[in-house]
Amino acid sequence: MSTSMNRRRVLRGMMGGAAVTVGIPFLDCFLNSNGTALASGAELPVAFGTWVQGLGFNPGFWEPKVIGANYDNNVQFKQLDPFKKKVNIYSGMKVFLDSRPAAPHTTGFQVCSMGDIPTQAGSPPSIDSLVADTIGTRTRFRSLEVSCDGSPASWSRRSATAVNAAEPSPVALYKRVFGPEFKDPNNATFEPDPQDMARRSVLSYVSEQRAELNAGLGASDKARLDEYFTALRGLEQQLDLQLQKPAPMAACTVPGAVEEAKVGADVGDAQINGKLHAQLLAHALACGQTRVVNVSFSGSGGGSLIRIPGSSQNFHQWTHEEGIDPKLGYQPNCTWLMDQCLTGFVNMLAALENVKEGDHTLLDRMLIYYFTDNGYARLHTLDNMPLMTAGLANGRIKGGHHVSAIGDSVTRVGLTCMQALGVPISKWGTYSNDTSKTITEVMA
Fold it and tell me: Angle, nearest 10°, between helix axes 107-114 and 127-135?
């Protein structure tokens, strides 16, 4: 291939006496020899995700026995073996309450995702929103949220009153991302949508009236108007992107249409929808539609509502009512549901690993933060919380480590994720959950 070939190369010719230029699609030669960057040296964009499961795992059955590199997965994490070199496990960490009461199935989620135990007065942004502020401002979707158990709730939020709703239906997600407004980044031609142009013009005109609208308003109304225009600027940025030809993405392929599946809390339905969501999100990331995704397999509404097929009891109820099998040493039905949740996580990792980008995969430039609400669901504890990260974040994170940080706040993991992804933050969390201590063992 000629050394003059690059992403800006176009085909030139004449048609009807007029000069024409046509762009060419993204080719493998645009990547370096390892597939880790563009041939020009520009880094492939890093991506981030959160994956939420309610009610965690059984203490003593998930923590690796070996601390550091080259650990062996414990019995409940054996499903993760194919991805062990790209997964880090964190044990021993806790949520500090600072004498505040614990909400059994929300406090753990809140501190893991927001670094705080919010009061009714408000809450800080979740970790994915902070990451999106850094890496998600130049994509069509700032972030995409899905749930697998039928709930529209998520732990992604801009503030206490600005929660990002999750999409339970894979069909609806497909239509939203790959419907008529989708612009294939590898198409040779591009034509802006006239409706997008009109919307952008209207929003620009409205923005120009800001000073006039502010005149004579009280402080609270000015604050409310400022929040409105902040959201409006976000819409303008998204429309600006829709009016530009998207950058080509080597691994982008458009998925086939998704067939309607039953949406609900039956764990079989959750598995089907979770696998479809994982594949669609992998396509969306590979096609540059977003760089931030959030998945709730169960627990977005607090606890976990998924059910064993044919049972009227949900996971949450089993944790309260099921006894411990004296031979096994754990609650059998609860453990089966935990294993099902982990299968959902493994399916997500597989979907990302199956997207090849040169000699690497989408999982190599992705970082997924797994968190849950309880250390031991049967007792609703907030210590020894099961936490994981998966993916290598474009080489910024080392995989294959078990980190034991007994008594430290769970916020250390979130801070480490944010610093690895370039978020300009030196500490995170509030009160005793405030930390400036990253997990250096996994940072490259």
Answer: 20
Is 0.90 topped by the overall pTM?
no
What digits encode the pLDDT tens for the residues 105-148? 889 999 999 999 876 567 789 999 999 999 999 899 999 999 99
Locate tokens 């998924």: which residue? 306
H or E stretch covering 390: strand 387-390
Q: What is the DSSP string of 222-275?
A: HHHHHHHHHHHHHHHHHHHHHTSPPPP-TT--PPPPPPP---SSBHHHHHHHHH
- Tokens 């004579």 — which residue? 216
Provide φ and ψ at 366, rounded to 5°. Answer: -110, 155
φ, ψ at 404 (rounded to 5°): -105, 120
Write the DSSP string, 267-332: HHHHHHHHHHHHHHHHHHHHTTS-SEEEEEEE-TTSS---B-TT-S-BHHHHHHHPPPPTTTSS-H
State how far the Cα of 238 lies from the Cα of 235, in Å rounded to an integer: 5
